[in-house]
Amino acid sequence: MFFAKRRDSVPEVLPTHIGIIMDGNGRWAKKRGLPRFAGHKAGADAFKRTVRYCNRIGIRYLTVYAFSTENWARPKKEVDAIIELLRDYLRDAENYKKENVRVRFIGDISVFDEEIQRRIAESEQESEDFTGLRLNIAVNYGGKAEIVRAVREIVRDVENGSLLPDAIDEEAVDSRLYTRGQPPVDLVIRPSGEYRLSNFMIWQTAYAEFVFMDVLWPDFSPHDMNRALWEYAGRNRRFGGVK
After folding, report:
1. The domain containing residue 158 runs over which residues?
2. Is 236 an active-site residue?
3. Catalytic residue among 8, 25, 45, 71
């Protein structure tokens, strides 16, 4: 009875910022005798329904790990297929305006072609004033690379005199991350049965709760999100103190 409740209802205590490592697309396709691209296509569908559900239940921030800096090492055919899914999403972005979701892409997008960069800029600009869920889509993103980028900005600011060395603190780093101005991640969800962070938002997840799930990402449903939210709601978040 309690398990059914956790699948079909949303707890009162919700995280402000959720991070999701969307994992398991390839294994989902392999189990069904399908090409890996089919798994990524199904994963894109899971992404859309998860975004809509998070927006509906009142989650304020959601960051999804779509394509990492390490993913370039995959076979070219698979990488090309993933990039085409990104392109399709951007072309279809006009149809999501009614969702009231504010979109931001985090990561080094300079590696993508002119069309993708233009559509990313348009998607961010057109949704800038939306008041619903704030969605971060991490593409060509790596947590270590993000911190290195922030450090380089700090070094430049010290060299040009706009930042004193003694003024370098956590806020100085935080304000130079892709997620500047956003709250830290409260909850990280990783489906697929893997138990690692995989270079995802290393700084922002310093005090996050982690929920690992055996479900493969293309099968991830609102019921699975509810299970993760109930798990989060039952955690005692002490932030190094005693409660």
Report:
1. 17-232
2. no
3. 71
Domain-embedded: residue 110: yes
- Tell me, what's the pLDDT at 93? 75
Decide: pTM greater than 0.90: yes
169 is catalytic: no
Rg (CA), the chain: 19
Count of all residues that appear for the chain in the document:
243
Q: Which residue in the list 8, 23, 160, 214 is annotated as catalytic?
A: 23
Burial (CB count within 10 angstroms: exposed 0-12, middle 13-18, buried 19+), residue 146? buried
- At which residue do the structure tokens 């103190």 appear? 241
pLDDT tens by residue, 103-158: 999 999 999 999 999 999 999 999 999 999 999 999 999 999 999 999 999 999 99
Structurally, how many domains does the chain consist of?
1
